[in-house]
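Hello,

Following up on my earlier ticket. Below are the four sequence lines again, exactly as submitted.
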Amino acid sequence: MSGEIPGMDVSMLGALAEPNRMAIVEMLRHEPLTVGEIASRLEVSQPHASKHLKVLSNNGIVESKPEANRRYYKLRLEPFHALNYWVTSLQKDMERRFDSLDDYVQELQKNKNE
Amino acid sequence: MSGEIPGMDVSMLGALAEPNRMAIVEMLRHEPLTVGEIASRLEVSQPHASKHLKVLSNNGIVESKPEANRRYYKLRLEPFHALNYWVTSLQKDMERRFDSLDDYVQELQKNKNE
DNA sequence: TTGGTATATAACTGTAAAGTTATATTGTGG
DNA sequence: CCACAATATAACTTTACAGTTATATACCAA
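Thanks for your patience. The regenerated structure is below:
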């Protein structure tokens, strides 16, 4: 009730806020990849890659499709749409504000009477 | 050389990926606030608020201006511009891809010969 | 100067998450 | 069925960070 954040899912950012996982997202930007491919390019162990992929998956950032022995992982659009929406609306609000904190403080001074 | 992420600063996301700090960003969306105001609205201790503000500050997300006894914190535009740029370019790349992983796997099947 | 308010910092504790190693599961081809 | 390859999971260690308490710093007013 008090800790409610309007649009943005904080845990999604947490999932992205780790270098290996961000690297995975960048790798998947252009093409789906298997766990083995990802682990190999990341130069981490297979369980380690699987663990990061699970975090990304739990946050809806990636989805996987079994294909024979392998699992192809790819990015999902939705969370990035949500992130884009949040950032854009934040920017709009910010740009409505004063350009510098100095201006605002000066404004505070002037309005001290009311 | 291998772990290079193009545009996005991962640590900035880490700074945002904590509920209290995200709440601070939301609070500052419309107006600069003092540490005391932030701590009070967040219902956390003053040192705790200061600590989160320091993280945000270290990542360039907020800036502060001393005014007498107090410090006004406000959001900075730049990191959100960078984030917006990253998300947008990622989305563009993604939307060039197949709509579903199924399609992609079918594509793999067809192209197995080459 | 003294007292009070606002903020920062240092030192510490607890917990969650990164990273590792070993093992289980699932699927494929012979 | 068996042997092998790809991935997932479990158990564990270690590190990083949230959160707390106590103290230091800076500013103002009387």
